[in-house]
Design brief:
mainly alpha; elongated; transmembrane; transmembrane helix; membrane
Length: 87
């Protein structure tokens, strides 16, 4: 069982941040020159793409019926059963 649900928007933003760091690592190693504004363009584009992916994921999940989207127990809440209900 997974501990949390998959959020593809966050994955896209994280990969974009790593992608923005690669040119500057190459610049620090002396392999090539990276302009200062490259990070702004890559991170800004990645945030926009991540927002779009998160929105599409939200719309897809909202389209599913509630019975298949939720696997929770439909029984009585814990506060109305057991020793607490005897009081």
């Amino acid at each position: 069982m997974w501990r949390h649900e998959f959020k593809p928007g966050r994955l896209v933003v994280g990969l974009t941040a790593l992608g923005a760091a690669v040119p500057y690592l190459g610049d620090a190693a002396g392999v090539w020159q990276a302009p200062w504004y490259l990070a702004l363009a890559v991170v800004g584009g990645g945030l926009c793409l991540g927002a779009l992916v998160a929105w599409v994921n939200y719309r897809i999940r909202r389209r599913r019926p509630a019975s298949t989207a939720s696997r929770e127990n439909t029984g009585a809440p814990a506060s109305t059963s057991g020793s607490q209900a005897m009081r």
